[in-house]
Amino acid sequence: MAETHEFPTLEVATAMTGIALCSTSISRMHEIATVLAGHDVWTHELGHRETMDAIGAHARIGLPDMPTRHEAEANWKAAAEKATSAYGDTVTVTRGTMQRSADPVSTLAGMMNKPAA
User: Fold this and answer.
1) How far apart, in Å, are the Cα atoms of 11 and each of 17, 29, 44?
2) Is 94 within a domain?
3) Residue 105 located in a structural domain
4) Is residue 116 part of a domain?
5) Range of 22's domain?
6) pTM, to two decimals
């Protein structure tokens, strides 16, 4: 049976879109991103757009009615309403199974515009 976790819907939507739809902590976003991805997410990767977009896309398979980044950027209140209308105050997420497209050291180096050693 797949490992599941229950989180507040708006915190999951925030992790999936990269846009703050509620007040939460960076440690909570880290926890949710790790569950959604299904592997360790290094803290700096929370700010790595490609990594977080991949996590959001992978999570959308199981949560298709969550708002997109584009929707959240355009109107965060409407995006928050979309998420809670679709899933209620809390949502159960299944631990992801995604594979990394790059190792964490390479993503950090890329964020610094330097090649990985």
Assistant:
1) 10, 7, 18
2) yes
3) yes
4) no
5) 4-111
6) 0.87
Give the residue carrying structure tokens 């992790």. Answer: 15
Give the mean pLDDT per block of 10 residues along the chain (117 residues): 92 94 93 93 88 90 95 97 98 90 83 66
| Angle at which helices 9-17 and 76-87 cross, to 10° | 130
CB 113 within 8 A of CB 32: no
SS (H, E, C) the chain: CCCEEEEEHHHHHHHHHCCCCCCCCHHHHHHHHHHHHCCCCCHHHHHCHHHHHHHHHHHHCCCCCCCCHHHHHHCHHHHHHHHHHHHCCEEEEECCCCCCCCCHHHHHHHHCCCCCC
In a domain, 60, yes or no: yes
| Domains identified in the chain, total number | 1
